[in-house]
Amino acid sequence: MSDIATTMSRGGRRLPALLPSSQGAVLVLLLLFVAALSLAPLVRLAVTGIAPAGFIDLDRLADLLLKRRVVTATLNSLQVAALSTVIAVALGTLAALLTALTDMRARTAWVFGFVLPLMIPPQVTALAWVQAFSPTSPVLGALGLALEPGARHPLFSATGIIVLLGLTNAPLVFLTVRASLARLPASLAEAARAAGAGNLRLVATIVLPLARAGLLAGAGLAFVSAIGNFGIQAMLGIPARFPTLVTLIYRQMNAYGPSALSDMATLALLLSTVTVAALAFAGWAGRRGNLQVDGSGGTIRIPLGRARPMVEAGAWAFLVATLALPLSALVATSLVSGYGQGLTFETLTFEHYVNALFRHSQIREAFATSFTLTGAAVAILLVVSLFLGWFLTFRRGPEVRAAHMAAELAYALPGVILGVAMILFFLRPLPLLGFSLYGTPWIILAAYLSNFLALALRPILGGFAQVDRSLEEAARVAGAGFLTRMRDIIAPLVAPSLFASGILVFMTVLNEIQVSILLVSSSTRTIGPMIVFLDEAGSSTLAAAVGCLMVLVVFALMLAASLASRRLPKGALPWQD
User: Fold this and answer.
1) 3-state secondary structure string, 68-92?
2) Fewer CB within 10 Å: N-end or C-end of the chain?
3) Can you give the pTM of this predicted structure?
4) CA distances to 337, 339, 360, 526 from 546, in Å
5) Which residues of the chain, if any, have pLDDT below 50?
């Protein structure tokens, strides 16, 4: 806030200014933005969950938290999160080693396919896999491996949830491990080979220990993502009667009584405690395992030799099994007139797509609401992130770091927790305005702004790291104000990062379900929760059509961003090298 203490001239004397400069005013607005949308709702959640009556009632907390359903849901959540993290770490680490260190061909295309499930909404992923193992599965049916009609679906179980969460979160581990591998110098491999180490020993004794920090960070992200993933846990766990904390909070939303909201807040606090503990442990373990090495001199390369065709075939077969199989089943279900029918020329129809786009008013309104709120969130977040990124890069004071930490916390916590916090914070009428945001699109927009500020900020911070401040300093010396410099110099310099940030936020917000599932109402619905509502209502074929449209939008946005990747900073797109 160095510009706040500007001076004003009066009668030839220079006195301290009573009004802040534009730079100081912008900083104050940024701090108020983060405090109002990220910090205050979480504080309200903590107060309501711990002391709803103004004092801490330990008997109430013990009575709620020790109930059998709460204990069972907590243990189930820990079980699926821990076991799915093991799967995600194994798959993500193997994928990172394969694409970062070996001479595998078509790596960019394979990474695109491997990361794609991370961008697809979890409820669509769950629906696609359910259709893939149905008796009418187009792929398994052709192989004679489809389930018999009436057989118990294997995914409606704890094992099904664990496997799907592991596959969905493997890209998170892949991204963090790949970043760690990129910093390993080739000299280490040369020294190991000179000592007689083979490729497997090189990976086991040198590469993986040095990449331990990235691996543990990825494991922490996978655990947190798994424990808060509502789409998969709801679509598979509710039919299987396998309760978890996120589904218990979702069901608590429909409970009645004077303690319903406070009980929901307490359950959300329990989930947030587990999440923060997991993140803290991952950070502590990562710092202990972080070994600094000199990253100069190129990166490690491990030639596959004669095994390359077989390894590449196995890698692509994995994508076919985990991506093409469920998506083909989803498409097939969306193209038949009734659920359970096989896809033939007689049953082929595009009726469900026509209904989703033109005839079904609730779906059409959900699409319109989602696009409107997503566009508004992207526009606001890009402006906020541009200015906050400048302060984090060039004026990193304690208040700016605190704002950054609050934004990261709101992004790291499961979306269901933030949804509960928004309900508690905006349920009462706003001061002076006299009306409540609950049940309106504005509470969903507020949740988006809080939840995804950190996501929008990350590519922009990468862009600021490559900015040469000489042009801005020259403009400042020439008398250009802060806002003018930001508009005419800084914004054009970080424009590629702004583009990457906008694409990532748009893809994430448009299909979001974790936050909005608790905030939608009969008059305000977004497209993410619509999949769950349609499936619960028995309209599986229509839900499949909506899911295919959502996947198509994600794929188109990823492809557009990839085509513009040459103008973007390195690492701005997670599926790019």
Assistant:
1) HHHHHHHHHHHHHHHHHHHHHHHHH
2) C
3) 0.86
4) 15, 15, 11, 12
5) 1-20, 296-297
